Every structure is written in structure tokens, then in C-alpha cells.
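Design job #97: recover the sequence.
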């Protein structure tokens, strides 16, 4: 996103715009040198506003996991997990590519941008190997 537009829209919309560009970006406080997620106008806890957007590796580890049960006509079961990104912060996201109840704590995952119910979202796939 061009530098001159960053101040005119909120952080949530900036995050969505990066997804439209095919980029998985999170924020980092320059002075604290710490990453965080979910997009905000200030660093959680300290209020630091010296934030920058940084493209992350997309790699992470399943911290906790849940299989959400739904009727097949409602789309069937799906996984919802907390993922610890290699950069440090945790985010909630779906893990796909395997049965939703087979996702395990400690599994290594890789992010991708995908359509989820008509909106772009970060989805993770288990790294096999």
C-alpha cells in the first residue's frame, strides 16, 4: 500500500487491503521491536504508536485447536485453532487440508490467503513431512 494512504484508513482495512494484494502483513512496534496481531492503532499494553506493517513468513505452530461440529447441509465440521506465528503473536484461524478433528497441538502450519464466506482470510495448512 502506498505510504501516503496509510493514515487515511483504519488498521483493519489496511490488513484487508494487503490480503487483496496477496500479502500477509502484521504490525510491529519499531521501538519495542515486537510484532502483534490483530491490527490496531497502538501497541497493546504500552500504547506505542510507532507501528509499521511487516510481511511475515506465514509459518506457525498450532497452540490450541477445536473441531466445530456442523450439519453437512450447513457446510460440515471445520477446525478453528490458535496459531503461534513464528514471529511471536498468536492468531485464531482455520486449519484446513486434513480432517478438522485431526489437527494437533504442536503441528507446524503454513498460511495462505483464501476466500472464507465471501471475504479474504488467512487459512493455515499443516506442513506434512
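Job complete. Output follows.
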Amino acid at each position: 500500500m502506498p505510504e501516503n494512504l496509510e493514515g487515511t484508513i483504519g488498521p483493519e482495512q489496511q490488513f484487508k487491503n494487503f490480503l487483496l494484494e496477496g500479502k500477509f502483513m502484521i504490525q510491529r512496534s519499531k521501538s519495542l521491536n515486537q510484532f502483534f496481531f490483530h491490527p490496531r492503532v497502538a501497541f497493546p499494553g504500552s500504547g506505542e504508536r510507532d507501528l509499521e506493517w511487516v510481511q511475515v513468513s506465514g509459518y506457525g505452530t498450532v497452540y490450541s485447536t477445536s473441531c466445530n461440529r456442523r450439519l453437512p447441509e450447513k457446510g460440515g465440521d471445520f477446525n478453528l485453532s490458535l496459531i503461534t506465528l513464528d514471529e511471536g503473536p498468536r492468531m485464531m484461524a482455520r486449519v484446513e487440508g486434513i480432517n478438522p478433528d485431526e489437527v494437533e497441538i504442536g503441528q507446524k502450519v503454513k498460511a495462505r490467503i483464501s476466500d472464507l464466506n465471501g471475504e479474504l482470510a488467512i487459512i493455515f495448512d499443516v506442513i506434512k513431512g
